[in-house]
Amino acid sequence: MEIKRDKYLEMLKIRMHNGFVKVITGIRRCGKSYLMNTIFYDELIKNGVDDNHIIRFAFDSADDLESIGENLQELNKNKQKVSPNKFMDYVKRQLVDDQMYYLLLDEVQNLDCFEAVLNGYLRKKNLDVCVTGSNSKFLSHDVLTEFAGRGDEIHMLPLSFSEFYACYDGSLDYAFDDYMIYGGLPAVAQMKSPEQKSTYLKTQMKNVYLKDIVERNNLSSDENIGELLNIIASGISTLTNPTKLAHTYKSVKNANLSASTIDKYISFMQDAFILSKVNRYDVKGKKYINTPYKIYFEDVGLRNARIDFRQIENTHIMENVIYNELRFRGYNVDVGVVESRETQNGVTERKQLEIDFVANLGSKRYYIQSAYDIPNAEKMEQETKSFDKTDDSFKKIIIVEKSMKPRRNEKGYLMLGVKEFLLDPNSLDA
Q1: Predicted TM-score (pTM) above 0.85
Q2: Residue 140: pLDDT over 70
Q3: pLDDT value at position 14?
Q4: Cα 369 from Cα 386, distance rounded (Å)
Q5: 361 pairs with which residues across the strands?
Q6: Rounded Cα–Cα distance for residues 174 and 419 (Å)
């Protein structure tokens, strides 16, 4: 069954012929190549583009490399990149008229001097360029500057829950349970048995994601960064910082790893799109607080696999899932902080109250709390206290695990069931 990625297809379609290199970024195995080479390719054909005007080339394909006189095994053995002259000669031979051509390039970081080559192609008015890649710098925040300000990034996440459920053979409750445990990598979504899913995720984490980070950043081994990843996985959705992580590392490993090294390792994992670091935002002071911060996983299945599917805390995993969904919908997401002064027994205390997410998109802003369960009035008071102190009119939303139609509580705050939130793209506007 084909998994539709309509959101990303639409993002590619509206960027066609814009004079920029369309750069599809995202964690390995999230479906970037399939989006470009199958879904987008099929869309071009459906809209009347001649197949001879679509040039697809994968720089990790033995057959494609052979067509330009390169040998994949020799390149890998000698740690060499593809000759730009050989590739450019190949493309030049394909351009036989002045009609529009579409250049779809996979794993383009394997092409030597790829930035210069692609910038050169931007000067051709009849050539529209779309690429994917896996180099850490190529996929990081530097992606736009790689193309002299003419790169247009489309960041692709693993399957959202709505995409996952659309191809799931089972009930909604079972689908949500599977998603919370095994995440949304497309290959995992099409596997049938729990054993197959867990084995795949554990193998990918160790042999692909961590191995990539070690090789890209010239680390001696994956031992330290792997142990740090375990510690982060055990503490998702909680406030942390490099110093706190260094103390935890010492207590776990009885060894030292400096805060500066930890900060560097976290940046490596961000560049590989394994993790997202989310800073706190002072809602009243309108300023960012650099530390502590929260860390979420790009895919909760990989998080669970890293700690061998122990510590499946639904509260924290649900918060991670909500965070990823907000990013999927295009929101910029911060952790909110509201300062409050409270007096007890004649003593005034300053407290910082947390809002799980401050989600911004254009002029829209939502304050969102992830509350797995609200069994009583005391818990409701605890969850909404930060909302009460914001002193503004932005919409305030509580998302709970229990399935429920959208409704407002006595304070006017919107309450949503998490499944309803995930499946309805307009749920925040209910």
Answers
A1: yes
A2: no
A3: 97
A4: 9
A5: 364
A6: 11
